[in-house]
Amino acid sequence: MAESKQLFNQSFTVFDQKKQKRKKARVRLSTPGAFYLNANKNKMTNCHLVDLGTGGLTIQAGSPLYIGDRITVEFQLSSQTLRIPGVVARATGKDYVVRYEELPPFETGVIQDYIHKVFFKDEKKK
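Predicted structure:
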């Protein structure tokens, strides 16, 4: 696991670049959402978003998911409702890492704006 360094305040953590494997920025958040398996689009299941980035997201769900499951995650971000298809890439307990299949330009813009606001919110107060 990457060593972390505190920067700004406790709500923002930066990981040592030498040990960082991700190429795209991610932020931690706590947002309710829902998902459905692409095989069964009629049954929505509640979930909770734990982190978000332009390459993928992590959710916590009470129902089991398996690596390779194709799902669509729906959630609110910056007063926009996003529906993003993806594939479960990793499953650990109730945490599931979802890698996007293809992130449309509108959703990419909304997520990038949100990440930018989180990273630079402390600088605006100065």
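Summary: DSSP finds one helix and eight strands in the chain.
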